[in-house]
Specification:
Number of strands: 4
Largest sheet: 4 strands, mixed
Strand content: 15-25%
Number of helices: 4
Radius of gyration: 19 Å
Mean pLDDT: 75
Structural class: alpha+beta
Number of domains: 1
Helix content: 40-55%
Order of helices and strands: HEHHHEEE
Distance between the termini: 86 Å
Strand order of the largest sheet: 1-4-3-2
Length: 116
């Protein structure tokens, strides 16, 4: 009986460990960035850079930057913009075993146009 339990345990543990992120962090929560800076400065630096890139680049270009910052599963919906000014979109990415998500403002070039 013990053998069956151990075999079952050995079969399912690696699959559970490879299933995905262990921790989820909402960076929109008040104080989340400060806490991240204290707990994990490396993730804080990489998260700030990914957010800056997501604010200034179209979603389809963000994967080009992934090599430098090593996020996994970067998610950004290019057609889902929140109706605000400036427009906002939700970005998600995984660093090591932690999934981060946040709403970022999209930098747009908005100028007043004189009407004739």
């Amino acid at each position: 009986m013990r053998t069956i339990v151990l075999v079952a345990f050995a079969a399912f543990v690696p699959a559970a460990l490879a299933a995905g992120p262990v921790r989820f962090v909402d960076l929109d929560r008040p104080g989340a960035f400060a806490a991240l800076a204290q707990e994990n400065p490396a993730h804080h630096r990489r998260a700030l850079e990914m957010i800056r890139i997501a604010e200034n680049s179209p979603c389809k270009l963000v994967p080009r930057y992934e090599v430098a910052f090593e996020p996994q599963d970067f998610s950004c919906a290019p057609t889902l913009l929140m109706t605000s000014f400036p427009p906002k979109r939700r970005v998600e990415f995984t660093l090591d075993d932690t999934r981060y998500f946040m709403v970022v403002s999209v930098v747009v070039d908005a100028r007043a146009i004189k009407l004739k």
